[in-house]
Amino acid sequence: MRPLALTLALLLSGSAPALAIPVRQVAGVPMPDFEQITFRVLPALAAAGEIAITHPTVLKHLGYDPSRLWQVGAAADTVLMLGDVAGAFGLERFSLEQIAQWGLTGRLRLERLTLARLKMLAANTVGEIVKALAYEQLPPESVPLLRDLANYYFNGAIPYERLGELIAQVPGFAGLPLGTTDLAGYALSGLPGIERVAIGKLAGWASQYIRDIPGLSDVPFSKFLSFTGNFTGIAGLVDVPLSKIEHNRTRTITGSDVEGFAVPCPRDCLHVELGDPLRGSQWVGSTQQVRGGHGVLAAVNGGKEPTGRHPFGRWGKIVLTGVDEKAGKADFGLYLRVCIKTTLFDFGCTPYFLGPIPWIPSQEKALTFVGP
Questions:
Q1: Whole-prediction pTM value?
Q2: 307-334 burial string, b = 16+ CB within 10 Å, else e?
Q3: I need a surface site. Which of 196, 240, 241, 292 has the fewest CB within 10 A?
Q4: How does pLDDT run along the chain (372 residues), one tens digit per residue?
Q5: Are the beta carbons of 330 and 238 closer than 8 angstroms?
Q6: How many other C-beta atoms lie within 10 A of the C-beta of residue 32?
């Protein structure tokens, strides 16, 4: 990742608190190290939640049910589906070969994988996989899994020489699910080239949880779609963390992408006072709920999300979650959202309510990146 461009305030001394995620110092400002942050190392969700989608039109066009619930302590990669973050992260662009190359732990060994590890394959049909992997001109014998399925379906008398002809002339065979046979008995070579194809070319990819794709939880965020450029903005001093709940905070720098980022807080205003260059401004905490979300999915969670900011882009929201006035400490959390879009329909995004995931805390008289 290229160096971050920052406009910084005067740095005052302050001891750095213990950090739950990888960070690096940029001109004295603790910044998330997205080259080391993966879904595997993200702290667990600190609150339970639910997404309930019951509208029949939405379900029909999606082809899957995106409803789910999660408990306190759930990992984000067991809550987020690939389709939720296609616009923000673009994880469906990756192939297994790329995932194995980029994974920080080195755990993914493609030669040890069976086709059963790609759970979506069981529901893929012969016709879908022939088109996805461009097998149309190949004889069935050159694709071990499809050879065996063809022998099973045609009782050993395969009527056409090429897979393209088979799926065109025999719809029943084209519609045969790959899970008709035990995929655990096949290495990746059972579908030659499967390790090089983008996950998004496989039917059903959008409904797969991130953890269900082998090795994906070990790929650093720096490889994701939203992390290809520099993060620019300012860093402000956390002047005074206040544990006392106050009212009528009007000089805020927090809000939402619906209401803007200067939303006044009328009551129950957990907040921190900021110093130069934002002296007199307040970062209001999660006790204030603001309007969020877009489109059909904006109705999820009652259309509300905690007030906060987007220092690192719209993929996630940073929220003040707690303060310890005695220790001079402010805690922050990361909140995520679900966005769903198909070829024909854009259902919008939920409010940022999946969280909090403990983020980089700050100390009194220390700089905190607030973004643009």
A1: 0.89
A2: bbbbbbbebbbbbbbbbeeeebbbbbbb
A3: 196
A4: 333 333 233 222 233 444 478 998 888 888 899 999 999 999 999 999 999 988 888 898 899 999 999 999 999 999 999 999 999 999 999 999 999 999 998 889 999 999 999 999 999 999 999 999 999 999 999 999 999 999 999 998 999 999 999 999 999 999 999 999 999 999 999 999 999 999 999 999 999 999 999 999 999 999 998 886 566 666 766 766 665 677 888 899 999 999 999 999 998 898 988 887 888 899 999 999 999 999 999 999 999 999 999 999 999 999 999 998 888 889 999 999 999 998 889 999 999 999 999 999 998 888 888 888
A5: yes
A6: 21
CA–CA distance, 70 with 165 (Å, rounded to integer): 46
CA distance 198 to 97: 9
Query: 371, 324 in Cβ contact below 8 A?
Result: no
Question: How many Cβ atoms sit within 10 Å of the Cβ of residue 345?
Answer: 14
Using the structure block, give the residue that is written with the tokens 């009551």. Answer: 267
| Spatial distance between the Cα atoms of 312 and 308, rounded to a whole number of angstroms | 12
Q: Is 321 helix (H, G, I), strand (E, B) or coil?
A: strand
Residue the block writes with tokens 């905070």? 249
Kindly state the DSSP code that residue 40 receives in the 8-state scheme. Answer: T
358, two tokens: 């403990």
- Of the candidates 272, 343, 279, the one whose C-alpha atom is nearest the C-alpha of residue 307 is 272
Q: CA dist 365 to 22, 243, 277, 285, 335, Å?
A: 21, 16, 13, 18, 25
Distance CA 118, CA 325 (A): 49
Question: Could you please report the per-residue DSSP string of 184-246?
Answer: GG-BGGGSTTGGGS-GGGSTTGGGSBGGGSTTGGGS-GGGSGGGSS--EEEEEEEEEEEEEEE
